[in-house]
């Protein structure tokens, strides 16, 4: 304050200017926001893709995907650039990757921006509802009718990655609209130490728990179980949902949109009790924030008797550089076995994996290329090549082909699991539902909440999210 | 006659003149104090040393239980992985480093170009409600980024700045501007206004007097200020993670954060990337050590 | 903000270097023009990137607008605000944030001041010591968060490994309600103790030596000297440092995002983290804006406090 020492209060003219500026800005904002609103109204439902692929461009074109950063994303980019280029030399494939924790946000913030740097979004099956309701992805029902051999698939696989509203578990509603096609199938595999518990995997969930218990007691330093418990992504939620399914529970009643009283019924409570009181004590100390990579690390370090992980994320387990179990792939495979999940009251397993969905905001040429790519990708021969390249195909013929079954020790597990799959809700409110479930299951697993209290809270809060459309303000809390 | 700005504000704590009077009281106490200080220093520095060590360990040793402090195989592979992709060519991480350089550099230049003249004007002229303006400017810097990012996101979506370097540059410039103005105003205050007055008596205009006489004296101050702005935008994470998504735009902090959460975590790589990322900041911080107090308080406190 | 509006139409440029300065009134005018020309670009950028977004958020906070769902925004009056203020979820986050801010800032003040005091009593190696202590503060929160997450890992983290060598059991640092919040506080303290130290050191070195000398003639006890000379002189500066840290800690997001992701359960979710979830998980932009505005109000109060003390310090 070198020159004049001014009074602290702003002089009156200054204030007026300030107020006027504020008012002007406010008006501008309102106008901008309203303009935005009208814009949105016009595109409230998903735009339709053409039934036949439009003429493709001859100019160089980059077809961009968005996925999270993991080996299948790199495999897809390499595979597509090697194989798709043979058909379409002018096309280059780019798979943009974001951190897993940021995957949903990265896609939906771009959707919200009405401008995407990707042409094909690789959405989780449960993201479809949100994307369709907001009109972010193309309706490809007619395209599929004309271009895809739907009978070549297990119907539920087509439904899970494409259909909205959601199909009943195990089925497909042929009159419902489709918004995507399967890209990478996935489910949980049970990974067990053959050298510690024997070659034969446990068949029931109860058996699995007692085998793990014995193994842990016999092998100090090795924990009985390792599974996803983290509160990010969908980690802890999938774990609970899996146990819930196996013990005969239901996540919701889709017809009446009821969660309260369905999720936390007797079967649901039993599942929570098994998870927290029987399974959790068999896990390593401090494993309460484990997700895919920590479970893999525990297996590779030889610290777990039985582990559960996504098949598509299990490839690294066979890498001798990362493993303490052996110095060659064969040595590791002598110790590690892969099996379908044990069953109990039901034999349900979680549906994982992702589909391909065309961004409503990408250029016409790119959308045409995207449709062409999808048609190409779902061809029988390409599906087999994708399998050989390390991907998980969806066509039944590819799933039963030697190309797939011989490509990895866990691939048979996937093929056997397909008829047993169940998915979560794919409603527009998915992101919030899964967050509620994740945080509460995580809290129960880590002793921050009693299991019953956690489950009741999940049911109550999820129900209020589903019912919240009529509320005045405060949505999303 | 010329006063070095450097010297004028060098009362920073790093210089060790004015040692406080040593008490005769006790050698024993002094030893105790040194010991305590040593322990605290070790505690504060251990994580950094551990990070450096992890970056040169093989992954097997990284996971070793009990932790290996000395007997491990030294490897430089992690550093190679930071820059070179597994299949050869540039890694995504190195691209993000480059993006960070561009974004931090450009935003710093912008903040400096806008901030220095403003600071000079605030220092020299009787601006209306100067104090209010200055305090208003500083308070914009205190807004929670998570809150600001929501409307910024909506705004950027209207003008197509989502997931662009320009978008990041603008928001970082706005984020650094309050700091630049406050910090630079301090430096300008140190340069006597009489120089300019004298020059103007010689027939120079005010602007010329500023450019020919004051500006050269401000260069060290501008350098210091710019370095701090550079550090702030280099380290920034929240805007980066919400406003960018593609590899071509993503800066290093979200890219490093993205190293975990795949299917395996390569802690050696995380450590190496962190070391490479932190190194320029530490070098820069060392260069401007005299101005640290002003720098870290956004130019508000100058001693 | 209220920069004089007649913008620089008169450019006193380099055209006539030798021209004698016009006397009196017109020169003052050109000064004003110059001031406006120099200040307004900066203010414009701040208006566009800080004020305008906040006003926009203010407008949205009275609506049920969603950034993704689209459709026109409906006015809901103070609905968002009352819902937030009444929400038990929000209260829980507020409490977490409060514990975190008080814990972290308190701890780093004590530690930072202690270190500064010890350093100020050394004659040799002060420069080196200070520089070493400052390293954590310069690191990106991303690096700090990731690395502490690695070190605090219950299974193979170095902290538990060292505890193990000392014969102590493993601690679940990041996965128990209490320890997770403590871990967050510890990590923040590790990073920001140097900040307090730096400011306190600046205050301590500025205490005039003659005051101590006078006191030592009076044979005053060390504690007495500390209480009556050192502390009162350093206090104003320290207070500013503390307030500064409190504001920063209140805004904390990145460390939570990386270190605990808010877990276990939601026990380390701060207000910032909760705003993020409301804004980006459900895209309830209206609610998130109201939530944000409420946070901004808290920040404004803290900032006012900070600025007032800053002002006082400057005037002394």
Short key terms for the protein model shown above:
heterotrimer; A: 477 residues; alpha/beta; D-Maltodextrin-Binding Protein, domain 2; 2 domains; nine-stranded mixed β-sheet; two-stranded antiparallel ribbon; 11 strands; 14% strand; disordered N terminus; C: 316 residues; mainly alpha; MetI-like fold
Shape of chain B: globular
Question: Low-confidence segments of chain C, ≥5 residues, pLDDT <50?
Answer: 1-26
End-to-end CA span of chain B: 23 Å
Percentage of residues in helical conformation of chain B: 55-70%
- Count of discrete structural domains of chain C: 2
> And the CATH topology of the largest domain in chain C?
MetI-like fold
Overall pLDDT metric of chain B? 86
Instruction: Write the CATH homologous superfamily of the largest domain in chain C.
Output: MetI-like
- Which series of helices and strands of chain B comes N to C? HHHHHHHHHHHHHH
Strand content of chain C: under 5%
Q: What's the CATH H-level homologous superfamily of one domain in chain B?
A: MetI-like
CATH fold name of one domain in chain B = MetI-like fold
Shape of chain C: globular
Helix content of chain C: over 70%
Examine the secondary-structure arrangement and name the CATH architecture of one domain in chain B.
Orthogonal Bundle
Structural class of the helices, strands and pairings of chain B? mainly alpha
What's the architecture of the largest domain in chain C in CATH terms? Orthogonal Bundle
- How far apart are the first and last residues' alpha carbons of chain C, in Å? 28 Å
Number of separate strands of chain B: 0
InterPro entries (chain B): BP-dep_ABC_trans_perm (IPR050901), MetI-like (IPR000515), MetI-like_sf (IPR035906)
Family (chain B): Belongs to the binding-protein-dependent transport system permease family.
Protein name (chain B): ABC transporter permease
Membrane topology (chain B): Multi-pass membrane protein
